[in-house]
Amino acid sequence: MSWIEEIDIEEAEGELAEMFAELTKSRGKISNILKVHSLNPAAMGDHLDLYMTLMFGRSGLTRMEREAIAVVVSAANDCEYCVNHHLESLRNYEDDEEILTSLATADGLEALEPRISNIARHAEKLTSVPGAMTESDLGELRAVGLSDKDILDLTMIVGYFNFVNRIAVGLGVEFSEDEKRGYLND
Hints:
The structure is a single chain. The protein has 186 residues and is an all-alpha fold. Helix 3 packs antiparallel against helix 9, helix 4 (63-76) runs antiparallel to helix 5 (80-90) and helix 7 crosses helix 9 (148-170). The longest helix has 23 residues, at 148-170. The protein has two domains: 9-56 and 173-180, no CATH class; 63-170, AhpD-like, CATH 1.20.1290. It has helices at 14-27, 32-35, 41-56, 63-76, 80-90, 97-105, 114-128, 136-142, 148-170.
């Protein structure tokens, strides 16, 4: 599953066993990105809490927009695991293959409808050239209706996926076809 030791679900004890049981109950199964945390259950719990807040918490960003951010950031970072995992979730909200391809390759983002285009291009720029960000970049987001809270949420989601991409790529977390299906509440 990855390049480091992982504790199998059947071998988990104590806090880790409880977390695996809760994840299986609430999510239907455990993703490989969480399994890689099995040697550090406290970090797994904190990671999952942040993910749930950013991706499912109250926000002016839609679930589709949040999944699009995940896919664009992951594409910019060449993180096949997260692109595939979140592209599958994005398909719940978007079925236009041209749009999905644009987001999954972080290419042609300027051709998307203005709101998602500005969000996706901002996410790609913040990922690829963070030192080039300026205050004026926020004007493009405000122009398509994002509030300062939405801009904060967008920035935190970009930061989160840069973090997760580095875990997945840095530890060789594998993606499989089985990985992308069978979750509850996606």
